[in-house]
Specification:
alpha+beta; 7 strands; globular; 3 helices; two-stranded antiparallel sheet; 2 domains; 22% helix; 24% strand; Wheat Germ Agglutinin (Isolectin 2), domain 1; 3-stranded antiparallel sheet
Amino acid sequence: MTDRMMWAVGPDDGEGWEAINAQTEAGARAQWAEQNGEDELPDWVVALRQEAWDELPEITGADWLRAGLGHTCVECQELAYLAFGARIIDGQPICGECLKEQGEIA
């Protein structure tokens, strides 16, 4: 068992999220704000608890996708989501558009 409590934290527009270890949602949001140069805690910062990440030594792009969240595609640098056709290939997130271009999906 670990003392880690991992959160996916970032702006409500979906860009710029980070994995943060904090004991509370408020603590996770405050830590994100401090790390991103915000003088006050913006109300548009969201924190989602990710219990599956607590035991992981490192949070990877594949872990973000498995959690139903987005992560940067290793091919094109756009956001990839499983819900929009992305896949995890060799442990890396690949977006649906890149998979189409590669002939992996129709």
